[in-house]
Write a structure and sequence with these properties.
Layout lengths: L2 E3 L22 E5 L2 E2 L6 H7 L11 E3 L6 H6 L3 E13 L5 E12 L2 E14 H6 L1 E4 L9 E2 L3 E3 L3 E3 L2
Length: 160
Amino acid sequence: MTLTDEPHLPQASGARYFDNEGVATQRRAIFENGVLNTYFIDTYNAKKMNVEPTISSPSLLVMKTGSKDLDGLTAGVSNGILVTGFNGGNCNSSTGDFSYGIEGFLIENGKLTVPVSEMNITGNMLSLWNSLVETGNDPRLSSSWRIPSLVFDGVDFSGL
């Protein structure tokens, strides 16, 4: 997984030259090939930690894309769930354990079959991101989070 903060993309939602504290923004590789490279550290916390501030929060997150669109990703799944929405839930920031309500579609033999709702997805964030199999080529360009469709293996769902 490669994720960068690209604050200077022309006419992009979230683009900016300075953060809310006046710190200059720059392109930052947050994760590069799965390795964490940087943190977002505001001026208050940087002073407490005796380090240089980066910026207080990401500007425009861009994830490296794959070669397939959503239909191509779905075609490669024999049995799974396409999550299209989240209906609340929580994540423990200390342990990474999470539980979210989801809605979407059942995938059988590479085809969307029936809609699903009132289901839960549970797990641990570290385990989830370690099970990332493939990224799509379809980031939402109108968002400040340009994240494509993602395929994970071995995710726990309940309620079907």
